[in-house]
Amino acid sequence: MALQQIYRTSLTLLTDLYQLTMAYGYWKNGMSEREAVFHLYFRKHPFEGGYTVAAGLEHAVEYLQQLKFTEEDCSYLRSLKGSQNQPLFEEAFLDYLRHLEFTCDVDAVPEGTLVFPSEPLVRVRGPLLQAQLIETPLLNIINFETLIATKAARIKEATKGDQVIEFGMRRAQGIDGALSAARAAYLGGADATSNLLAGQLYNIPVRGTHAHSWVQAFDSEAEAFEAYGAAFPKDSVFLVDTYDTLEGVKQAIEVAKKLQPRGFVFGGIRLDSGDLTYLSQQARILLDEAGFNSTSIVASNDLDEHLITHLKQEGAQINVWGVGTKMITAYDQPALGGVYKLAAIKNKAGEWEYKIKLSEQLVKTSNPGMLQVRRYFSQGRYLADMIYNELEPIPEQEQLVHPLDSTRRKIIEPGTKSKELLVPIFREGTLVYELPSLASIKMHTKQELSQLHESIRRYVNPHNYPAGLEENLHQQKMDMILKLRSTKSVGEV
Length: 493
Known about the structure:
Layout: H1 2-6, H2 17-28, E1 35-42, E2 52-53, H3 57-65, H4 71-79, H5 91-98, E3 105-108, E4 114-115, E5 122-127, H6 128-133, H7 135-158, E6 163-166, H8 174-188, E7 192-193, H9 196-202, H10 212-216, H11 221-231, E8 236-239, H12 245-259, E9 266-271, H13 276-289, E10 296-299, H14 305-314, E11 320-323, H15 325-328, E12 338-346, E13 352-354, E14 371-378, E15 381-389, E16 399-402, E17 405-411, E18 417-420, E19 423-427, E20 430-431, H16 438-450, H17 454-457, E21 467-470, H18 471-486
Parallel strand pairs: 6-7, 6-11, 8-9, 9-10, 10-11, 15-21
Antiparallel strand pairs: 1-5, 1-12, 2-4, 3-5, 3-19, 12-13, 14-15, 14-18, 16-17, 16-21, 19-20
Helix pairs in contact: 3-7, 4-5, 7-8, 7-14, 8-16, 11-12, 12-13
Keywords: Glycosyltransferase, Ligase, Phosphoprotein, Pyridine nucleotide biosynthesis, Transferase
Protein name: Nicotinate phosphoribosyltransferase
GO biological process, one term: NAD+ biosynthetic process via the salvage pathway
């Protein structure tokens, strides 16, 4: 497993302090075993887009499988002090943690699945203490990888089928940022990575060219190209902009001609600066005139979906895109606002009580119940998603209500095909889900995007996909909001 190969010690303390203080509070109050339901979801698509690609489940599964407080973990917790220099946690609680075993049910959306605001990507049902304890690591893993997978999908869409190579490790947010992002970028749409460790751990194809320093290390550009071509006669891509780009292209062509009798294959040239449209057009002319019609033109230099689209519209002759900083860091939106909210808890009598988090902003008011998502489809197209409460019956006439505007509703035609998005991952702490290969996840992402209307996939002002609350769930939520607000005094309103 990749994470355990990188980080040899326990990851159980990869969480916020308040998760442990709440756990201690639940334990002290006899609530630790109370059954509860939490949902992980986001409120708004990243990048002002029309869809989001779910990712990170495999790493989340691995984390949960390894969830155990070691002696070293407990020793550290024992060292923590309160404001009066008293032990923060009593010894009996640390002993409880030492023997804690994960026993929750977890349901989740498979990686590569398209998801929409308010839909649970992960649902956790189990003892309150355990379900609360895993909030931070789940958000850490799912938020970041979902963000990067979505960015990669947008970039791949912009290339209209060209190859995309993830070049971003040197600009990534740390070691794990580089690795988890390389994996997420690949499942989202990238075709390869320059990151060798990611290639080794995740079986991602690796690609690369050479740096400007290679050219600078030789007495001339031609000498540098010839030496590189001799070393890699079947895989050479020459970086041509160290001194003068078009002169560099000419030098590359001359070297390729010189090496051809020895079986040299001229793979491509790379442009890393300047006017990429003009330079690629001129380079294509020079290459074609020299008979190198199949030689690729690779481009890098702060690329993202917007710049790639612009270059395509201008007629740039680029067919391989090396995308680094702006994909690996999700440069224009470096965080997904995923949240993890309590939605139901059993009372002392063992009956379910629904819970919501109230807010003056409706978008921040959570949904109650044990939620599932039903996706409707027809003739290879996704039509709509309905979020519903599994603990309550659904009317025969299925109707969606927009989460933020109750006047916007959609009636589902009887007989419309559908599928449930959340699938069982853990049952009572035991893994019951067969993790797919990364290659199959990547294919799933591609298939998912093909079933989404192009108006929803566009970058600017995308059409809104119909994703709403089941009618009874919406009414239940409104009733709970009114009840909670009616308990306020006049001065609090």
